[in-house]
Amino acid sequence: MFAQMVRPPSGSATPPSDGVDRSRRETHPGPKHARVRPVFLLAGLVAAPLAWIIQICTSEALASHACFPMGHPLSAPELTSLLHLVAMVSAACFVLSLAGLVAAWTCWRTVRSECSDLAAGLPEPGRRSRFLALVGLLGSPVFMLGLLLTAMAALFVSPCARW
Predict the structure, then answer these.
(1) Residues 97 and 47 sit within 8 Å (Cβ to Cβ)
(2) Distance of alpha carbon 88 from alpha carbon 13, whole angstroms
(3) H-type helices in the chain, by residue range?
């Protein structure tokens, strides 16, 4: 009798009734997993590193074009507004990385209270969302620091100076 209660008979393939399915959803250990948007998880993971890469590539391209036209080094940049352009690119990239941090924080706030103990049986999608949100939340400030340090180097060191 107990074995019949634990598993259904082998010949029956009827789905559980709506009441049973509803009670399963209410007691699901990760009910908020469905509310985490994959786009926000992706933005939280890649926005800050992508912004840093964009900042480095754009700043280096602008500086090389302004300081080494036609392969001849100059002592001062040919483009007079080079520092303003580099500052605007750095600010735009910082805003992009900040948006990624906000997206990661939003995802983390959604999934952090699902289960404080991972051994309690958080299902695989819930663990994945929680992990990705945490990686985005911890990684974004590191890349934001890289953005700030790169901007400081680009603004304080002459772009045409020899390293």
Answers:
(1) yes
(2) 63
(3) 2-6, 18-26, 38-67, 82-111, 124-156
SS3 35: helix
Pseudo-torsion of CA 101, 103, 107, 108, nearest 10°? 10
How far apart CA 62 and CA 103 sit, in angstroms, is: 30
Residue type present at position 66: A
End-to-end CA distance of the chain: 81
Cβ-based neighbour number of residue 103 at 10 Å:
23
What's this model's pTM, rounded to 2 decimal places? 0.69
For 143, the token pair is 């890349």
- 83-110 tens-digit pLDDT: 888 899 999 999 999 999 999 999 898 8
Encode pLDDT of 71-86 as tens digits.
666 666 666 788 888 8
Q: Which of 90, 64, 99 is nearest to 146 (CA)?
A: 90
